[in-house]
Amino acid sequence: MFRGTFTALVTPFQNDEIDVAAFERLIETQIESGVAGIVPVGTTGESPTLSHEERERVIEMAVKFAAKRCLVLAGTGSNATREAIAYTKAAEKLSADGALLVAPYYNKPSQEGLFRHFRAIARSTALPLVLYNIPSRCGVDIGADTVVRLAAECPNIVSIKEASGSVDRVSELHTRLPDGFTILSGDDSLTLPFLSVGAVGVVSVASNLFPAKIVELVHAFLSGDAKRAQRLHQIFLPLFKDLFIEPNPVPAKMALSWRGAMSGECRLPLCEMSGANEARLRKTVEELERVLQ
Known about the structure:
Blueprint: E1 4-8, E2 13-14, E3 17-18, H1 20-32, E4 37-39, H2 52-66, E5 71-75, H3 81-93, E6 98-102, H4 111-123, E7 129-133, H5 135-138, H6 144-153, E8 157-162, H7 167-176, E9 182-185, H8 191-196, E10 201-204, H9 211-222, H10 226-242, H11 250-258, H12 275-292
Parallel strand pairs: 1-4, 1-10, 4-5, 5-6, 6-7, 7-8, 8-9, 9-10
Antiparallel strand pairs: 2-3
Helix pairs in contact: 1-2, 3-4, 4-6, 9-10, 10-12
């Protein structure tokens, strides 16, 4: 179910309020470009700064604007199991197609605690669930043994977004997980290496800006055109890197603002880019657009 290109959507703001019109335009662009799905209320969507009501509103809008033309994978994770269950139930009620569950952050549970956390969420919903492993942000790794255990015990845990940065980890998961359980890259710069050892897609930040080309990269590899995929990877690698020279999604929003797609506004504690980094990103984006002409 979860394969191909999923865009980790930014949440547009205007004067500290959600910019509904910009959000709808962003989703329409994604669908026109052929993405498999969109991911509202993830880290790229600045979920930590959204109120409970705003989180539900963003998911509701994503479902409405997508209108069944692509999958909607709602970010519903939390470091409090009860809260994650409540978010996931709300996403199910709002007709999301699935839920993305980030590992509990800050409180650093044991592997047994992680297993019980995700199992409790899985038992609370009929939605298909995607685990999200990102140790650099969460301070805890969902161990391979735990992922295998969850896949065996929870039929609706069907995929993992892997952002550990390890090709070996993806290779191990691909070998050990059952057929049909999919692995998605959580890092644009590692999509091609991860695809080469068993991943089948990406949850992408870069596709906010260049959705059609990220779709093309993933499709090229999965359809057997590894040379085309490698060429696109090489072209986009500078952008993949520069979208993270400052905290995500600050650079992505800045680049979108240059197109007039939305303001570059983020909510504190995120703030605007430094002048030097903004200049570097602009140069990278302009060079990429020149190459793509």
